[in-house]
Amino acid sequence: MNKTKRVTITDIARLAGVSPGAVSFALNGRPGVSEQTRKRILTIAEEHQWLPSSAARALGGAGAGVIGFAVNRSAGTLGAEAFFTDLIAGVQSALAENRIAMQMVLVSSIEEEVATYRRWHSANQVDGVIVIDPRDEDPRFPVLRDLTLPAVVLGSHASGEGHPATIWLDDRQVAHSLFDYLGALGHRSIAYVAGPAEFQHTRLRTEVLAGLGERGVSGEVIATDFSPAAASTAMRGLLSRLHRPTAVVFDNDVMAIAGLRVAQEMGVSVPKDLSVASFDDSVVAGLVHPSITCITRDTFGLGAAAAKFLLEQIDAPDVLADRIGAMPQLTVRESTAVPR
Amino acid sequence: MNKTKRVTITDIARLAGVSPGAVSFALNGRPGVSEQTRKRILTIAEEHQWLPSSAARALGGAGAGVIGFAVNRSAGTLGAEAFFTDLIAGVQSALAENRIAMQMVLVSSIEEEVATYRRWHSANQVDGVIVIDPRDEDPRFPVLRDLTLPAVVLGSHASGEGHPATIWLDDRQVAHSLFDYLGALGHRSIAYVAGPAEFQHTRLRTEVLAGLGERGVSGEVIATDFSPAAASTAMRGLLSRLHRPTAVVFDNDVMAIAGLRVAQEMGVSVPKDLSVASFDDSVVAGLVHPSITCITRDTFGLGAAAAKFLLEQIDAPDVLADRIGAMPQLTVRESTAVPR
DNA sequence: GGGTTTTACTAAATCGCTATAGTTGCACCC
DNA sequence: GGGTGCAACTATAGCGATTTAGTAAAACCC
Question: Residue A159: its pLDDT value, please?
Answer without folding.
Answer: 67
